[in-house]
Every structure is written in structure tokens, then in C-alpha cells.
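Running log. JK asked me to keep both predictions on one page so they can be read side by side. First protein, sequence followed by its C-alpha cells:
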Amino acid sequence: MTYSIVARDAATNQYGVAVASRFFAVGALVPHLRGGRCAVATQAFVNPLWGLEAARRLAAGEAADAVLADLVARDAGQAQRQIHMIDAAGRSAAHTGSDCIDWCGHRIATDVSVAGNMLAGPGVVAATLDAYQGNSDLPFAERLMTAMEAGQAAGGDKRGRQSAALRIHRTEDYPWIDLRADDHPDPLAELRRLYDVAGERYLHVAQTMPTTGNFSGMTDRAPLDAAIAAEEARRKAEGRQSRSFATEPE
């Protein structure tokens, strides 16, 4: 009922998952990440414990193929499950159970994997992977969204559209960005809108947040305020209005 992409940006060691489905709030259960160490997507007849356990074990240094083999061996429902993952060394592993609903399958390449079930056909996975690999010049978040949009153009979930999500972790176990469209007629377009709104202020704030290497983060607000003001000025110069639904005080 879902297709997703799991990727590592080798240049920055950021990990990301993007997912779309004709199912409510797909972002609530599919993506599982740890900062700078791993990314996992668990889907089909979803077992959230697969994602939680895989992310924990991969973050501790276990190899993706070993973790996957253990999960499959222990779960009597594995034939209905689908999962793919990238570990701390950049190694990928994927499983599409034999009872997942057609079309179903996965493809793995360097630092990226794409998997899906209940899709319009194999072209969904192929188009998603090709678009990701063919847009290495884009920022990581935009590259993931572009890949998912290509998969949707190839047919996506054969039942239609409802929800989508994008989550990226940099160095930390909290996300750098975590966007969800839980119930929307065009969820991937909604992710684009949310990402654009995030660029107005949120992504600048994210740059200041504490990390394990800098527990206090940035405490001087002046550079943050200047960056936000510069972003607003740039948008005005380009004639672009805010796409935010935020309200002003009454």
C-alpha cells in the first residue's frame, strides 16, 4: 500500500526517508532514523517493531543484512512485511515478503533503496530510483521529494493518494526536518508547500539547535534573526508570497 525511498547523502552523512501511500498518516509508522547512523522504512502489513529494532541495532553498529535476516526469521508474519534500510557503513538490505500485494518489490543501489507494494507497477520503483540518481545536484531534501514525485507520475499507489512524509536526520537522533501530510488529496505537493514554509524560518532555527557535539547550540540570536530577515528580503525581491497558513494576532 506504500512506496518509499531510503537514502544516505554520502557528502554530508545525512540520512533520509520519504514515503507516500493511499493510507492515513503513513509517516507515523514507516520511517525510523538515527542521526548519522541509519535509516529504515518498514511497510506493507506493517510491523512497527521492525523499524524500531532495526534502527536501534543499526545505530549500534550491526550490519543491515544481519539485522534483516534476524527480523525475518523471528516474525511469523514476515511474508506480508516489507522493509529496507541503510546502516552506519552505508550498506543496504531489503525484504519484500512473498505475500505482499502486487505490484511489490524493491531495488537497491549505492546509498539508496526504493521499495513498494500495492503499486501501479514496477515502473514506480524504477522511476523513483532513476529520479533520485539523476538529480545529485539537488539539495538532499529536494532530491528525495523529486524522486517521490517521479514515482507518483509513474502511477504510485494503485489505489490513489492520501498521505506522505519526509524525514531527514543530520547528526542527531532528533530530525533536522520531519514533514507529514497525513490526509491530503495531493500529499506530495503538500510536502513541497511545507518544505517551502520551513525555509522561511524553521530551517534557520534548526541550524542553531544543540547537538551532542555542542550541547548549548547557538545562544546568540543575532545571526539567526539576520538570516531570517535576509530570507524574507530575498522572497520579497523575487515576488514570492509566503505559503504559510499561519495567522496574525487579532
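And the second, directly underneath as requested:
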Amino acid sequence: MATLAIPQNTIAVLQKYNFNFQKKYGQNFLIDPRVLDKIICAAGIVKEDFVLEIGPGIGTMTQYLCEHAGSVAAVEIDRNLIPILEDTLSAYDNVEIIQQDILKMDIGCFVQERNQGKPIKVVANLPYYITTPIIMGLFESHVPLESITVMVQKEVAERMQVGPGTKDYGALSLAVQYYAEPEIVANVPPNCFMPRPKVGSAVIRLTRHREAPVRVADERQMFAIIRASFNQRRKTLVNGLNNAPDIARSKEELVLALEKMNLPANVRGETLSLEQFAKLSDLLQ
């Protein structure tokens, strides 16, 4: 099968199947072989790997993954793409095409069945509207993961790797950094896609921590505190937490906890590090 990373081959496949792009699925297909090489290289795909690809589209990146990995599971939500994938991937016997919504899949159970619970690598060109739920879903459900290498909106990638005190710092930065080491490996301009998105993209690799960088008694509570701290950015941390229904603490208790951490009562959430959020969570237990 001809490589789909060359624009005219992508156009030929789309015309053959009379395929129409679905806005609701945020479909933008990669048409640059250099970017695909960078993704494969960044993800460090080798023959021993089991790779889960989310949103394979017409199979452009899947072809590359099949060449390098031991086995590939490609999960695609759009049923109109399944016959196309069966055609474009027909030369490979190490791929399984699954028509499913990744957010409704029990990935932990799937990995247990297909890879005996050994860590997998996730690779994806993600629709922007669904980036956060997919990444957080993979981490929070404790799927055995080695890394997630994804193409996302450039500003989302930047948000994942910034630290306290910056305007992009937020709940996503903290959550990603609690579970993984983020590193932007490539910036990708709009002309590398069909159709062209309106914004720039970036490839980011999230290498799963073997051990979380901070210890916290209740992971769930820490993330509830983090979310509440950034829900209303303009408010002080005390007011943000005091207004959160799932954090039943009085202002006095909150101020006291901050005092114990040598933090002023008017501190804002965006200035706290992951370590400080873990400590605050433990103090409010």
C-alpha cells in the first residue's frame, strides 16, 4: 500500500471512498512524512512494543507504527473510517482495528487481555476538544503506560509543561506533571495537515513517572483542591476552596492550613507548586 503521508495518496484514498471530514470529530489528517518520523522517534517505538493508537484516521501514522512496533491496536470512533483502515492497513498482520469511543473503553482491561498487563505506549493525533479527557483518563485509571506521545494544539502542549506563576499554569499542568515528565519534541505548522487547522500544533511526549514526584495521602482530594483552585483564577485560594462543594472546609480552617505552610491568606492557586498542593491536601485531611 502506498504511504499515506504523501498528500496526493491521502487525496486519492479520500476520493476513492468519497470521504467527508466530520467537524464533530475534529478530523485533521497528517500529510508530512518528516513529522511522522519525529513522532515514531520521540515515542521510541521498537519491535517489542505494544502500541495503542487513538484516532488513526485513514491510517497514515498507523502504517508507520506497524512498520516499527510488535503490535498495534488502532481505536477509531468514526465508523465511516473503518472500511478505509481495513484497506490502507491490509498489508499488515500486526494491527487490530477497533471501532469504539476511547472514552468508553476499559483500557486497563484491554491492556490486560492484549499485553498481559505489561506497559504499553500510546501514540495519537488528538482532536483538540478531547485532548484533556483522554490524557487524564489514561493516567487516572492507572493504565500500565510507558509513555504517551501525542499531537495536540500548541498552547495545550505548552500548558502541560509550564510551572507555577506563569499564565498558562493550571490544573492540567499539575495533573500531567504528577503522572509524567512532559517534553515538547516538535512544533507542527498548520500546513502539515489536511484540512488545515486554524492553529499551530505540537508533539509532546509524556514519559510516565515510575514513582509520583510527591507523596500525598489522598490523590483524589489533592486533585479536587487543584481543580477548585483554578476554577475561578481571579479569586484567592481560600475563596476558591471555600466555594467548592466537594471541599467542606471553613475559611478559618483553610487560612490555618496556609499559615502552617507559611503562606499568606490571600495567596492564589497559580503560585503553588505540586509539592505545596500535596501538603495542603494532607493538612486538610
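Observation for JK regarding the second prediction: The mean pLDDT is 92.
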